[in-house]
Amino acid sequence: MLATDILLSIAIVGIYTMVHVYLRTEYRETKKIIRLFFEGFVIATIITGILYYIIKHIAS
User: Fold this and answer.
1) Is the torsion defined by CA of 36, 20, 33, 46 positive or negative?
2) Cα angle vertex 14, ends 53, 47, to 5°?
3) What is the pTM of this model?
4) Which of 2, 25, 27, 56 is deepest in the core (most CB within 10 A)?
5) How many Å apart are CA 39 and CA 43, to the nearest integer?
């Protein structure tokens, strides 16, 4: 993986995670915010990884 690919993946995961937390929380419960953060992070990481390997397979 190139350094730019890694940075792009981190940016995508971060943006998705923050949007996920923003749309699904009331900002009053700290435990809920943390749980949603990790849930969004895991989902975004999986999606980004799958997309990366699909694009890599198609490009080669």
Assistant:
1) positive
2) 30
3) 0.60
4) 25
5) 6
